[in-house]
Design brief:
The chain is built from seven helices and seven strands; from the N terminus they run αααββαββαβββαα. It is an alpha+beta fold. It has a four-stranded mixed β-sheet, with no helix packed on it. β6 and β7 form a beta hairpin. The longest helix has 25 residues. It is rod-shaped. Keywords: Membrane, Transmembrane, Transmembrane helix.
């Protein structure tokens, strides 16, 4: 008799799980409230949960991952408060994993490391200092007074391709000044 009761209990629990899965996932209910209920947002964050923040930078393709510095400050606070810090309207998405809450989003700019880098390129007929590493266009930092048309062909091609370092700006200016002086002595 105990075996039959155990069989019916197992069958009932399995059937209810499949029904709940079909109801939530197959029927397309995907919002937090629909999937987990309003009460889920008010549940407190458990002690020891790591909170990870991931940002993907579309321009350079890098992903920065950081763990919140004091996740214990969030222990006992409702999940709703954490969601307010990383709102969906600002592009944040979240994922729950055992022992970890992950917030992620994608932004259009450069990561901090690449936004500090510069290279020489061409804009408006002059050599320009471009934001980002070589090959990545993060905008113009500033225009120089070096006309691209005055550059020797190999140097001009390298500038157009964006493969010159900003340190070469002074060398290029000195080179062109030297060329001007040698041409004036002819």
């Amino acid at each position: 008799m105990a075996l039959i009761s155990l069989y019916f209990l197992t069958f009932t629990l399995t059937y209810m799980t499949v029904f709940a899965y079909d109801f939530m996932v197959v029927n397309g209910q995907s919002s937090w409230k629909e999937r987990f209920g309003k009460d889920y947002l008010d549940r407190p964050i458990a002690p020891g949960v790591a909170i990870t923040v991931e940002t993907t930078h579309q321009l350079c393709g890098h992903k920065t991952i950081e763990n919140l510095d004091r996740p214990e400050d969030w222990t006992g606070r409702p999940f709703r408060e954490l969601m307010q810090r990383y709102p969906e309207k600002e592009g944040w998405q979240w994922e729950l994993r055992p022992g970890n809450i992950i917030f992620s989003r994608s932004v259009t700019g450069l990561c901090a490391d690449d936004s500090a880098k510069r290279h020489l390129g061409v804009s408006e007929g002059v050599v320009a200092v471009i934001v980002g590493p070589p090959g990545v266009y993060g905008g113009i930092d500033r225009l120089t007074n070096i006309e691209v048309s005055r550059l020797p062909e190999p140097l001009r091609r390298m500038a157009e391709a964006g493969w010159l370092t900003p340190e070469l700006e002074n060398d290029i200016s000195l080179y062109l000044d030297g060329m001007d002086e040698s041409n004036s002595h002819k």
